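Hey,

The postdoc asked me to send both predictions to you directly instead of through the lab channel. I've kept everything plain text so nothing gets mangled by the mail client. Protein one:
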Amino acid sequence: MTLDAAWVRAQFPAFSEPSLQGWAFFENAGGSYACAPVIDRLTRFYRERKLQPYAPYPASEAAGAEMDEARSRLAAMLGVQTQELSFGPSTSQNSYVLAQAVCGWLSPGDAIVVSDQDHEANAGVWRRLAEAGIEVREWRLDPETHSLQADSLPPLLDGAKLLCFPHCSNVVGEINDVAAICALAREAGVRTVVDGVSYAPHGLPDVGALGADVYLFSAYKTYGPHQGLMVIRESFGAELPGQAHFFNNDTLYKRFTPAGPDHAQVAASAGIADYLEALSAQHSGPATGAPAARHAHDVMRAREVELLAPLLEYLSARNDLRLLGPRRAEARAPTVAVSLREPAEPVAARLAAHKVMAGGGDFYARRPLGALGIDPEVGVLRLSFTHYTTPAEIEQLIAALDAEL
């Protein structure tokens, strides 16, 4: 499954933008470029349909239909029911609202499990439940391997109600075995919340197959607008107290959305499905729905593994930096963080002189960095890319690192 890089990059207007010519984009973990179908749909909505949707006149009916299309197509690609997918202003906001609902579901003395491999958006809202008398247990990463070890989890699950963990850490990069972890939790009678923000840009997961009760990710990192997407399985959603207007609590996809959604951005999110289907068809795969999403996932991941291998080999050979996470490309996402002997943010600024866009800092991952003995104030240099990156850009990055480290 060799990626047609020229075709892929033609689907992203950023690559034809004069001001971005020659720049290699290595901060995709902070937000990807938007694909053309998303931009086109957003533009059309603002031009033709920027009014209250679902009213009985053509423009409003078209607006509502496009919002429904986004939900139904993306839910199918995620392997869940349409009503199980909701939109919110961000994953951080969705996580906060969900935590408020869970707080009403739990009782003082109940226990939840969180990890220290998490981005703070997923970790912080759960840890704050301790203020309501909830016992918060920590699943700690191994400081040598940087991994969450499955054999240390069962004792933490004993008597717990909820497990919150990442599909992939935004600094460690390791892809956790979500299906196995969720199965372990399910056997113990524990519900699961999975932060998929750092994994979903590398191919939408089959959430139904993973078995998570909740799965969250961000559209602006999956080539779309600035929205947070949350899958909450119907059986769990029905147990939690609603957080919306009382008259919306009977509709699952509205139940955990306190305010009205951004109509235009929800509608534009259908462009993500457009792109994934076109990507699959271009690479001899199914043209529509969940099969297209699965094929697109595999094509994207194969390309990323191919690009990631030489970068990991280069970084692993240097003794003046510390590579976080697995050194094997197949085991991780192409979100690569390195700890340096100097503060990371100025290094990222120096890379810009070589037309390399990268990030330096803590990336809201202060807990995992602290667990690995890294001062969050010093931070890490993060080099993150996706399937639309080219081998030439990897070479450009390595040359810049050679010049500045």
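Protein two:
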Amino acid sequence: MSEPVLSVRNLRTQFKTRAGTLNAVDGVSFEVGRGRILGLVGESGSGKSVTGYSILGLIEPPGMIADGEVLLNGRDLTRLKGDELRRVRGAQLAMVFQDPMMTLNPVLKIGTQMIAAVRAHDNVSRRAARVRAREALAKVGIPSPEERLDAYPHQLSGGMRQRVAIAIALLHRPAVIIADEPTTALDVSIQGQILAEVRRLADETGTAFVWVTHDLAVVSSLADDICVMYAGRVVETGPAAEVIAAPRHPYTAGLLASVPAEHEPGERLPQVPGSAPSLANLPPGCAFAPRCFRAGPACTATPPVQRFADGRSALCHYPIETDSCQPPSSTSTTFRSAS
């Protein structure tokens, strides 16, 4: 992997509630290199979106970042406040939301909003800002970009609005873009077009993406690397193709087994039993143990991070590619990948 532009280290985000302090993000670590796409995958409530908001410093009370570092080109964003952080957002670090109308003002023309976004960080003329806005729209595959600058958001389709949101995120050629399920509400054909554009943009511009999603089909066609999250923790990491082909954490295996495309029409889909636990009432040890087909006596203790010889890792006492369901040796947590 290339030199990381974004390094998240032991990130912990907490929320104060009547039920107590909840660790929505609990010791999350990962890296993203230049031009790479990291898929951050998990069920609703797994902590993946909160991780994205934490990276951008968008957590407000009763939430707080309690521990960890978010290094953007070596600079710790968790130490930045106020105007200093706002200068980084948009210019070096941007976000694309699931609903493009969270990005777009419905009463302002597209061009007006994009010009304002350019001039918020760069001291350029309106004409120069409009040229950059037009180029950004063209870059994400929007036809007749000059005309679109004079359109209002409601005059564009959902897919077109999402492309505009991505174009706005690209205006300052940021090092990293966080995308929070931006294609979930779109038709499959439009989704495929946008995913292809994002892959091309990452390759051509060198911008790194953290793609937050629950959809493994999206990740398999888009991401270079995967982080699977469960109950606020990363439970498996590795190259996307390898994780999809041979998952090592039972939770990842359960998610993959329930993908409809992997089964014949009319066949009953397997599913991960039960439901995700409440963060206010996590089971002792491994949070996934009550739902896990490989759970054993050791699972009442916090699982170790098992690091494999191929660079992959799994937060599990009994990772799938060990020879049996017996606990791994206490003297070593490094395993050879299966041949």
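Summary for protein two, as requested: Confidence is low (pLDDT under 50) at residues 322-339.

Thanks,
C.
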